[in-house]
UniProtKB/TrEMBL annotation:
The entry's keywords: Repeat
A GO molecular-function descriptor: RNA binding
PPR repeat residues: 89-123, 365-399
Lineage: Eukaryota, Viridiplantae, Streptophyta, Embryophyta, Tracheophyta
NCBIfam families with a match to the protein in the record: PPR
InterPro entries cross-referenced by the UniProt entry: E_motif, PPR_At4g14850-like_plant, PPR_rpt, TPR-like_helical_dom_sf
Biological-process GO terms, alphabetical: RNA modification
Protein name: PPR repeat
One Pfam family from the record: E_motif
């Protein structure tokens, strides 16, 4: 008549047993239990689990606890419980394997994987995914090839394809999919929506529109378009078509979708925004009942790219008014600081700076700090720029380049070169670093220093000068009046000069009145851009400065005969009226933004 032992009672007794303590490096080998202090409790627990009625239920309970410990980050407790288990099944091993992989303990996971008495499809899939996250692509492929045919399924196949995609080997991902498709299809292993979405991403990486269309055709055959499960593949199709500049195809997929989730709308909105089809992007944005922070960021970023920064700021104002429903994140502040830099809205930029401090984004977040450097540079505040740069605990190449360029464009060439030397000495440089250095030398008249840096790029720093570097050097020489040297450098370039290069030289000739070189530059520019008035007007300006008024008049008459008209100028009075109206609008938005920001800061003020 004894009542059968119940699961809660066994679990309670096991919880009474103290957790084992461990020693040694977790990844040096499998953790070793050193002992338990409560021997009676352990004996009682083993007595209870020896009852046949309790074993299956206890295994399930302990396995669930292992998974829960892993999700909560209590890996030690998960390991301890796993080692205490007198009986383990396949699910228990897989659960422990997942906990070790998710916590980054790859060596321990590999050891457990080898010790498993039996492995199933989930074991192989988890291990491939873990190796992928650690960048061990070759080992992942070896493991995939060793999977018995009975355990090879769509999940292990997808995991290996995803491994190639995540580790920047998209060609291998597409090759694996196409190479095994027939063989696995005959074994009734059919790619699912997630498989196809990963393959589509790889096709986009290799920019193969032909492959994308083939996978698109496959999705129509294998997936139920009306089913909710096909949304992953359809979202991937929209994204890859947009990135390959096939906006009409992206629209076609989006409009045919029966099920649209938040990601579907965000992806299509982002496609419109990147193509500056802002009205269509706004149409989707305004139709969304549910928006996340990404939705707002996509729209604000699109407006900023479309030179509608004031509207981006108004949208940011609307986001702040939502309160706690949707909050600005790191990307939001970066976008808005860029808008402040574009419109030189210093006071509002300072408000954002203070807000990032309150939200612990500054100075620890490098993206926010880099945006602040750019904003203060555009507003001409070098002390603030240097203070932000000084307070950054970590600096990347963009940080150094932004400071060098900001100092140089504001006339602090010597300070810019001082920072540049530190960047070069600490190996924090790339091609853009030298563009910033040459620009600084150009604005500061430091021709000798600039040429030294230009000539040492490939020899000392292993960076081959690009067309942009040559143009910067031509501009530097041209500003200094060294037009012959600028022309010779342009002619000696290892690649053909573009319109920007000739226009740069022509502007220098116009400033210094060099007729002969100016004529050559104008002719080259006319051949590259027939309808561009810059070449004609630049040459006419040179004629007027060199007292060749007759040639200047003839050239202007030729412009009229060709029907090439310069954009109408505007008087100072007209410009003041136009910019005055714009400034009033900016002032109105700033006033509203400052009010909302002040309220927002009060709401999020930390409690003491």
């Amino acid at each position: 008549n004894r009542r059968p032992c119940t699961l809660p009672r066994v679990t309670f007794l096991l919880e009474c047993v103290p957790q084992p303590f461990f020693s040694g490096d977790r990844d040096a080998g499998r953790p070793r239990a050193m002992g338990l202090r409560s021997g009676n409790a352990r004996q009682l627990a083993h007595f209870l689990v020896s009852k046949p009625c309790a074993v299956p239920s206890l295994i399930v309970s302990q396995t669930k606890m292992i998974t829960a410990y892993g999700k909560n980050g209590d890996v030690e407790k998960a390991i301890g419980l796993f080692e205490q288990m007198s009986h383990r099944n396949q699910v228990s091993y897989n659960a422990m394997l997942s906990v070790l992989l998710d916590s980054g303990r790859l060596v321990s996971a590999l050891q457990l994987f080898e010790e498993m008495p039996r492995k199933n499809a989930r074991s192989y899939t988890s291990m491939i995914a873990g190796l992928s996250r650690s960048g061990h692509v070759r080992e992942a492929r070896q493991l995939f090839d060793s999977i018995p045919p009975s355990d090879r399924n769509v999940f292990s196949w997808t995991a290996m394809i995803s491994c190639y995609t995540q580790n920047n080997e998209p060609h291998r991902a597409v090759s694996l999919f196409s190479g095994l498709y027939r063989e696995l299809f005959e074994s009734k292993v059919i790619p699912n929506s997630y498989t196809l979405s990963v393959v589509l991403k790889s096709c986009g990486c290799i920019r193969s529109l032909v492959a994308v269309r083939q996978i698109h055709s496959l999705t129509l055959k294998l997936l139920d378009e009306a089913g909710e499960g096909s949304v992953f593949a359809q979202n991937a199709l929209i994204d890859v078509y947009a990135k390959l500049d096939c906006l009409n195809d992206a629209e076609h997929v989006f409009n045919r979708m029966k099920w649209k989730d938040l990601a579907s709308r965000n992806i299509m909105m982002d496609a419109y925004a990147h193509n500056l089809s802002l009205d269509q992007a706004f149409r989707i944005f305004n139709s969304m009942n549910e928006k996340d922070t990404l939705s707002w960021n996509i729209m604000m970023s699109g407006l900023l790219d479309g030179h509608r920064g004031l509207e981006a700021l108004r949208l940011f104002l609307s986001l702040l008014r939502l309160g706690h429903d949707t909050k600005p994140n790191l990307s939001t502040y970066t976008i808005i600081l860029t808008a402040c830099a574009t419109h030189t809205m210093l006071e509002f930029g300072r408000q954002i700076h203070g807000h990032t401090v309150k939200n612990s984004l500054y100075p620890n977040n490098i993206f926010v700090s880099n945006s602040l450097v750019t904003m203060y540079a555009n507003c001409g505040l070098m002390e603030d720029l240097l203070q932000v740069f000084k307070e950054m605990p970590k600096k990347d190449v963009i940080s150094w380049n932004s400071v060098i360029h900001g100092l140089g464009q504001n006339g602090h060439a010597q300070k810019a070169l001082e920072i540049a030397e530190k960047a070069l000495a600490s190996n924090n440089f790339n091609g853009n670093t030298f563009s910033a250095i040459l620009t600084s030398c150009s604005h500061g008249g430091l021709v000798v220093d600039g040429l030294d840096y230009f000539n040492s790029m490939s020899r000392k720093y292993s960076i081959e000068p690009t067309l942009d570097h040559y143009i910067c050097a031509v501009d530097m020489l041209g500003r200094a009046g060294m037009l012959k040297e600028a022309y010779d450098l342009l002619r000696s370039m290892p690649f053909a000069a573009n319109s920007v290069a000739w226009s740069t030289l022509l502007n220098a000739c116009s400033i210094h009145g060099s007729l002969n070189i100016g004529r050559v530059a104008a002719q080259e520019l006319q051949m590259l851009e027939t309808d561009n008035t810059k070449s004609y007007l630049g040459l006419a300006n040179i004629y007027s400065r060199t007292e060749t008024g007759r040639e200047s008049r003839e050239l202007l008459n030729l412009l009229r005969e060709k029907g090439i008209v310069k954009e109408l100028g505007s008087s100072w009075v007209k410009q003041i009226v136009v910019y005055g109206a714009l400034w009033n609008a900016v002032g109105e938005v700033m006033q509203q933004l400052m009010q909302v920001m002040t309220r927002h800061c009060r709401v999020h003020e930390p409690e003491h």
